[in-house]
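Action item from last week, closing it out:
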Amino acid sequence: METSDKFQITEPLPASQRQAYETFLAKAGIDVAAIEWVESESGQIYVYDVNTNTNYNPTAEEKAGIFAHQHLAEYLKNELAASYPE
């Protein structure tokens, strides 16, 4: 499990960047994923990884107060509620 300080969670993600990632994931048929990127000194974004399984970084999550497992649980809860309404 990665525990380095070299990663951080960007929240909120700029709307245009989020939309580009959501479009990419939708076209690829991916419902749940994390996208990792680096930003150059000039502000250019380079995506280097799309994770469709667990790849948690507890240090980054703790610093941001955002936890991937909580977001995944909420997503799955909403999917179940939509599929099996009361």
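Closing note: The mean pLDDT is 84.
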